[in-house]
Amino acid sequence: MTGAESGPVEDRRDSWEGPVPVPTGANSEFWAATLEGELVHQHCEECGTAQLYPRAVCTDCGAVDPPFEASSGVGEVYTYTVCHVPGEPGFGDRTPYVVAAVDLEEGPRLLALVDCDPDRVEIGMALEVTFWQVSDEAALPVFVPQ
Hints:
By secondary structure, this protein is mainly β. Helix content is 5%, strand content 35%. The strands form 2 sheets. A 5-stranded mixed β-barrel has the order 5-6-7-9-8. The chain has a 3-stranded antiparallel β-sheet with strand order 3-2-4, covered by helices on one side. The two termini are 24 Å apart. Residues 70-131 form the ChsH2 C-terminal OB-fold domain.
């Protein structure tokens, strides 16, 4: 990891009622980076595959423990849905909200909340990452329009 920040961290520990990630094994380094405002992904040294979310092996070649590198935190909406019915406890007061598949500049795609007016989101929309700290161990990557 480079140590370069890719987005601000907003402390939401007192108000967050949604699911809270539990860092374990291969994803511990990912969640530690989120607390520092850094979005990281794994980049396999064997085959060059970039992957996110973290796994113990490369999803392409099976190499063990692909190393992490910093992401710019910039991407675009590949596809999205507007949720009118809360999918998880703690999301009832957020409806409607946007969940998008975000293509990062570095290649990986991840599902994430997009914090914007649901009427404004569109495929190809440029996004940048920000973080909502929801526990002492993790901050959720949340995207906002650029």
